[in-house]
Amino acid sequence: PVVNMSCLLPPGPLRSRAAKAIGFIEKMIDYSIANAPLQKELSAEEVGNAAAFLSSPLASAITGTVLYVDNGLNAMG
């Protein structure tokens, strides 16, 4: 069988109970909203949709890819 390997990492700052343990997640989210090309808060659903896409037949020709789900923040350097 053919195995495609791609990576959905790292998602942008995501509001969650686990993220609250970081202590400054709110500042990270505010920074992302202010500086990313898509100036909005990232949702868990958006990250999940990207993961579902990569594991679906729609991504059957994609391998060796890092997919950033971060509202474009990574593209800003």
TrEMBL record:
SUPFAM superfamilies: NAD(P)-binding Rossmann-fold domains (SSF51735). It holds the Pfam family adh_short_C2. It comes from the Eukaryota. InterPro entries: Enoyl-ACP_Rdtase_NADH, NAD(P)-bd_dom_sf, SDR_fam. One of its GO terms (molecular function) is enoyl-[acyl-carrier-protein] reductase (NADH) activity. Pathway: Lipid metabolism; fatty acid biosynthesis. Keywords: Fatty acid biosynthesis, Fatty acid metabolism, Lipid biosynthesis, Lipid metabolism, Oxidoreductase. The keyword Membrane does not apply. The keyword Hydrolase does not apply. Gene3D superfamilies: Enoyl acyl carrier protein reductase. One of its GO terms (biological process) is fatty acid biosynthetic process. Belongs to the short-chain dehydrogenases/reductases (SDR) family. FabI subfamily. This is Enoyl-ACP reductase 1-3. It comes from Trifolium medium.
